[in-house]
UniProtKB/TrEMBL annotation:
Organism: Micrurus carvalhoi
InterPro entries per UniProt: CFAP210 (IPR039986)
Keywords: Coiled coil
Coiled-coil region(s): 100-144
Protein name: Coiled-coil domain-containing protein 173
GO cellular component: axonemal microtubule
Keyword field contains Coiled coil: yes
């Protein structure tokens, strides 16, 4: 019986019974170097073959500084995020120095707004009062101009000359 896995692995014919499949070991895949192609004319005495673990150690030592830098940056970012979160949490507390000063500033701002509103009301009342006074002055000026008119003056002179003797006659 041949299965898909059995088709991929060759049958071992020497050293075992004929047709028996070779048992797969867990490290077989790591030991087999697939896809290594060397250029033609390369001196094999000049090539060093390293185990995978050794190659990984070398790569880790080369990238250690970059990893440390990335880790330091990540820690700084985490600290900064934690600090911002803490500040956001403490921002609304009233029993801290910053909270008390913030409350004082809010109170001062509210007082100033209230005073400004009162000043606006007083200014509005003052403007109404000044407008009323101005109307009264204009009416007085119009009346004065009316009395200074020649027709009205002559009428008053006639009135005074006619009624004045009557007043004295009646009083006597």
């Amino acid at each position: 019986p041949t299965t898909m896995g059995a088709m991929l692995r060759p049958e071992v014919r020497f050293g075992r019974r004929k047709g028996q499949m070779r048992e797969a070991t867990p490290n077989d895949e790591d030991d087999v170097m697939e896809g290594i192609f060397l250029p033609v004319g390369v001196d094999l005495h000049q090539i060093t073959i390293l185990p995978k673990a050794e190659w990984q150690r070398i790569q880790d030592s080369l990238t250690a500084r970059a990893r440390e830098t990335a880790q330091i940056l990540a820690e700084k970012k985490a600290r900064k995020d934690l600090h911002l979160k803490s500040q956001a949490l403490v921002k609304n507390w009233t029993h801290t120095i910053a909270g008390m000063s913030q409350q004082k500033l809010k109170g001062k701002k509210v007082r100033q707004e209230r005073e400004e509103e009162e000043k606006r009301k007083v200014d509005l009342e003052e403007a109404k009062y000044q407008a009323q006074k101005r109307k009264e002055k204009i009416e007085e000026a119009k009346l004065q101009q009316y009395y200074e008119n020649d027709r009205v003056k002559s009428f008053h002179v006639i009135k005074i000359t006619f009624f004045l003797p009557l007043i004295f006659v009646h009083v006597v």
